[in-house]
Write a structure and sequence with these properties.
This protein is of the alpha+beta class. It is built from four helices and four strands. The protein has two domains: 78 residues, no CATH class; 50 residues.
Length: 137
């Protein structure tokens, strides 16, 4: 199980218009016990120190190394979702793609594919118009 600790920071935009690559620090919950043990060791070292400045410096250094060791960066792709694009429309677009390949292989008639494609186009147009009307209000 992974838990995201920080918001994604934009590092690089890819060639496609609606995909971005972001780096996030990921905390694997499997390393929780290891983190607890390391924090106990850090506290025992710091409380035994007599100089406050050196103890603070050691604490910061050890925390930085723990963060780099445990909370690794992971590159995540995020898709910019258009406000009008619903899950049902994405599923229909995938189905249209499958129908396209079936049409080219001759397993279904061209008329069925064209009818499905036309319906999907009308639905997308209507969703875009509805979305823009809602944003204007």
């Amino acid at each position: 199980m992974w838990t995201m600790l920080s918001k994604p920071s934009k590092t690089k935009e890819t060639a496609t218009k609606d995909t971005k690559r972001n780096k996030m620090r990921i905390f694997p919950t499997s390393k929780l016990d290891y983190l607890r043990d390391q924090l106990r060791n850090i506290w025992s070292e710091i409380t035994n120190s007599k100089d406050v400045n050196r103890a603070y410096g050691r604490f910061i250094d050890k925390m930085k190394t723990l963060i780099e060791e445990i909370l690794t960066f992971k590159t995540i792709q995020q898709h910019d979702m258009k406000p009008w694009n619903t899950q049902a429309m994405r599923i229909s677009a995938r189905r249209k793609n499958v129908l396209y390949h079936l049409k080219n292989e001759g397993e279904i008639s061209t008329g069925y594919y064209e009818k499905y494609s036309g319906i999907l186009k009308r639905v997308v147009r209507a969703a875009k118009l509805l979305s823009s009307e809602v944003r204007l209000d």
